[in-house]
Amino acid sequence: MKLLGKHTSINVRKLLWLCDELGLQPEIEEWGSGHRDPQRPEFLALNPNGLVPVWQDEHGTLWESNTICRYLAARAGREDLLPSAQTAPAARARVEQWMDWQATELNSAWRGAFMGLVRHSPAHADPAAIATSVAQWNRLMTLFDAQLQRSGGFAAGPVFTLADIVLGLSTHRWFSTPMDRPALPAVAAYYAQLNTRAGFRAFGNNGVP
Question: Is the domain of 67 the same as that of 98?
């Protein structure tokens, strides 16, 4: 097993956390800013998008971090993390629903704020655009807070699933970005609960207890 990507990437860290939950120890090959350039032909042959992470094992090569998460959970037979499509299709759909929400709605909302306030990207320096991104990000995290209150503490229900690995990284990013944010008690309790897991402390929370 080999994981191509850099340890600081949010999408690589979700896979490292999942590997910890599954007891997997893939070989790490560093690609990305500060390491080997993913625009090199040998990397593009694996992922034509030129983005990390890429996963390789005896079954082939995969890219897109949430897809790799689904694959690894299914490969390990971990129906607690990703319920079976045959025996529990509705439960599985709820997990995938929140994973897809993270990858589309939430990711799109935070980009301007994160790139402007954390990465200090010249292309994302407009204060009005940053403010719009912050407002949208906070609105969606408020929506997530309401879901956590309804669900019993985790994204897709009362127990920890794959959805919490991808949303746990997003929650850490929300807390760590220097901006105004509303007090969301269910999200705060969720974040504290995630910090009881060794994999989150090591990879999801940047190694901070």
Answer: no
pLDDT tens for residues 147-159?
A: 999 999 999 999 9
Q: Verify that 114 and 66 share a domain, yes or no.
A: no
Q: Please tell me whether residues 28 and 110 are part of one structural domain.
A: no
Q: What pTM was computed for the model?
A: 0.94
What tens digit of pLDDT does each residue of 162-180 get? 999 999 999 999 999 999 9
Per the structure, the count of domains in the chain is: 2
Q: What pLDDT, on the 0 to 100 scale, is given for residue 34?
A: 87
Structural domain of 158: 89-200
The mean predicted confidence, pLDDT, of the chain is 96
Do both 93 and 196 map to the same domain?
Answer: yes
Distance of CA 190 to the CA centre of its chain: 15
Residue 82 in any domain: the answer is no
